[in-house]
Amino acid sequence: MNAPHTELPYYEAAGNEVDLFEHAWKNHLPVLIKGPTGVGKTRFVAYMAAKLNLPIYTVACHDDLTAADLVGRHLIGDGATYWSDGPLTRAVREGGICYLDEVVEARKDTTVVIHPLADHRRVLPIDRTGEVLHAPSSFMLVVSYNPGYQNFMKGMKPSTRQRFVSLRFDFPNAEREESILRGETGCDEMTAKRLVGIGRSLRALKDVDLEEVASTRLLVYAAILIRDGMDPVEACRASLVESLTDDQEVAEALLEVVLATFG
Ligand code: ADP
């Protein structure tokens, strides 16, 4: 559980997403955020929770996640059984945000538990206790996913996705990405510019087979290592090259891009 924040996490906005999120929250609409990994989806939700002064419960979804992991289960302790709320139930009871990260990783029979919460009913029936929780006005459901090609087959059930207002996140433009690197790591302007240039060149590589391209997160890692005094090439090798590929040839091609700037 994360208690309501007193300090706003650092978030560099791209457009009208802060405004849209507030309108959605005020009007009890759930929000879906889609976009590649490491472009600020999770940071944005943490920022909004703090801005709206709401507790946030984050669940990293995976294919073994069950409805009980979200809603809760009976546990045994001191010779008796007692009910333990899952993160979704807690968020409903407290009127906070429940954020399901990478929701397409969860099985469809798990995600159906959010349906009655994600439309006008705003209820959470808890079969095992017989309770039906009515979500307070401040409760909000937020889900995110990465529509990259590895998720192509999984997708989201239309009956689930059509319950959400959707926001698309993408890689920031150069100016915004530089601000993110400087704001997040305190690195100097030249380092930020160079790293953003490398990130953009890496993303533009056409003949290199990568499952995911370089995210802002990886550029942040490189900036942290450089700011801390590491050699820029070694910092980029560790964050931008080796984190993106295991293939030696591909790694060499990526390193060429780094060397063109820092070599
Ligand atoms: P996602 O949830 O999209 O995978 P995150 O929100 O975890 O990505 O972002 C990864 C990291 O990148 C953050 O921890 C932060 O350092 C940085 N970052 C990306 N976008 C932003 C942004 N708009 N403002 C501030 N930091 C950002």
Notable features of this structure?
263 residues, Rossmann fold, 2 domains, 5-stranded parallel sheet, two-stranded antiparallel sheet, 11 helices, binds adenosine-5'-diphosphate, Nitric oxide reductase NorQ protein, CbbQ/NirQ/NorQ/GpvN, P-loop_NTPase
Please provide a written account of the structure.
- This protein is of the alpha/beta class.
- Helix content is 41%, strand content 17%.
- The strands form 3 sheets. A 5-stranded parallel sheet has the order 2-5-8-1-9.
- Bound molecules: adenosine-5'-diphosphate (ADP).
- Beta-strand portion reads 15-25%
* Small molecules (ligands, ions, cofactors) in the structure: adenosine-5'-diphosphate
Number of helices: 11
Percent range of helical residues: 40-55%
Structural class: alpha/beta
Total DSSP E strands: 9
- The average pLDDT value, as a whole number, equals 92
If you consult CATH, what is the topology of the largest domain? Rossmann fold
Family: Belongs to the CbbQ/NirQ/NorQ/GpvN family.
Organism: Sulfurisoma sediminicola
Protein name: Nitric oxide reductase NorQ protein
GO molecular function: ATP binding; ATP hydrolysis activity
